[in-house]
Design a protein that fits this description.
The protein has 88 residues and is mostly helical. Helices cover 68% and strands 5% of the residues. α2 packs across α3. The longest helix is centred in the middle third of the chain and has 21 residues.
């Protein structure tokens, strides 16, 4: 498994797989079956459910802060990508 502490498989998905798909899930870009499987994992995994809540809060705050432009400044995008990569 990956470097995620206490990683487990719930509903056929590992925590790493859930984290890799979380952005697509929040954007509504997952097919129904994959969405349902991810939601089942979140219901059965407290760690991923907690992370999902924090991640959703962060995304909402970023969207509000960035306003209608929808554009994330490139420097912020690089910093966010590095932070997310470090979490893996």
């Amino acid at each position: 498994m990956s470097g995620i502490r206490d990683e487990k498989v719930v509903a056929g998905l590992s925590c790493s797989e859930v984290l890799a798909r979380l952005s697509d899930y929040l954007d509504g870009d997952l097919p129904d079956a994959a969405r349902g499987q991810l939601e089942d994992h979140l219901r059965g995994c407290d760690s991923c459910a907690r992370f999902d809540g924090e991640f959703q809060s962060t995304i909402r705050a970023l969207r509000v802060h960035l306003g209608a432009s929808g554009e994330i400044p490139s420097a912020l995008r690089v910093r966010l990508r590095r932070a997310l990569d470090d979490e893996r």
